[in-house]
Amino acid sequence: MSMRFTAKARRGMVAMTIAVGLAVGVAGCGGGDTDDKKPDGSASASRKGGSQASPQEGQSAEPLAELRGPDGLTLKITSAQRDPGGFVTINAQLKNDGSKDAVLSSQLTGNETEIMKNGQSFGGATLVDSKAKKRYYVLRDTDGRPLTTTGVQSVRAGDTVPVFLQFPAPPTGTTEVSFQLPTFASAPLQISG
């Protein structure tokens, strides 16, 4: 019996293969996935669903970088790990040091139509390799959803929300990049691994 696949079936199989590969890569790096319901720990934020970062073993108490944003928000990057799958996973803590609840700007999502249609995210973040003059954008899955924490609408005063982001990995010789997130100050970042 001869098996024939339509173009649509072939695309579906390719998309499924890529999605499974990304899911395995994400699960293996401890970055969480889009089905996570609650973070480990006591962070509580006003949000509608969304994915969360998982704490990684061996994270140092001292952040790799700290970015100041509006309304008392601070993003502390706790790890920037190069993974064997060809991507970099960044784990961070978004804290509201202000006295009032902070509503996150839609600018954090970025201005790409495909990412914007998937709701509030950190999809506007980039890694910049100034030596090679290259900019790396947040990865997307086959449906165009950004591989980053999604659904965080606001952060209550005093609360902390775990955040993860995944980017294509710069060449192995590149270990220092600049992390940029709209409405936050940029910061230099060392990539490990």
Automatic annotation (TrEMBL):
Residues 43-59 have a biased composition (Polar residues). Residues 29-66 are annotated as: Disordered. It comes from the Bacteria. This is Secreted protein. It comes from Streptomyces tricolor.
